[in-house]
Amino acid sequence: MRFGRHWRLVTLEQVRQRAENDARTHGYYLNPDEEFLISLLEGLRENEERYGYPSCPCRRATGVFELDRDIICPCDYRDPDCEEYGYCYCGLYVRKDVAEKRLPIKPIPERRPSEKLARAYSKEDVTVSEKPVEEIKTTLVSEEHPAEVLKMWYCRQCGYVCFREEPPYVCPICKAKREMFSRLTVKIIG
């Protein structure tokens, strides 16, 4: 199902009110940097007008609701990100300590599964390897950008996916040990 611009216009105040209500309900705060916060809220507003739903302003949406369901704000990854890092992937929602101390928002690993990332960027098939960490090398390569390489790690116990040089020592979701991680190989053809 595709959505388009035929949806009603949404005001920035409506987007802000919805985010504030959700933050309050779940014990979070909105980013205390007002300028940064406005840019995120504006991104949500634009995405809602564009697609008919407020997809995450810092991730690429496809415009296909079924494929983007996990990144409709607040995304499925907000709570584990806030628990582990103190803020969500885009920095819209923050924990109390981050808000009060105005701690810096730094990039954090993407939790969105590689299959969904690949669909969002290329809509091509994804291959996932289940080989143990020692046995496989990882690349995310497109023909347009052959030098682009990202290492992705997959927890074989719960499915958590992250981008980093080495797998985590402990899975932030299920607490599995490092040995439970495999590298994912994703090739984007097109």
Fold and architecture overview:
It is a single chain. The chain is α+β, with helices and mostly antiparallel strands. It has 2 domains: 90 residues, Ferredoxin thioredoxin reductase catalytic beta subunit (Ferredoxin Thioredoxin Reductase), CATH 3.90.460.10; 75 residues, Single Sheet (Rubrerythrin, domain 2), CATH 2.20.28. The strands form 3 sheets. The chain has a 3-stranded antiparallel β-sheet, with no helix packed on it. The protein has a two-stranded antiparallel sheet with strand order 1-2. It has a two-stranded parallel sheet with strand order 3-7. Helix 1 packs across helix 2. The longest helix has 18 residues. The radius of gyration is 18 Å and the shape is globular. It starts with 11 loop residues before the first helix and ends with a strand. 31% of the residues are buried. The N terminus is likely disordered.
Task: Lay out the secondary structure.
Blueprint: H1 12-26, E1 29-30, H2 34-51, H3 65-68, H4 78-85, E2 93-94, H5 96-101, H6 114-121, E3 140-142, E4 152-155, E5 161-163, E6 181-184, E7 186-188
Parallel strand pairs: 3-7
Antiparallel strand pairs: 1-2, 4-5, 4-6
Helix pairs in contact: 1-2
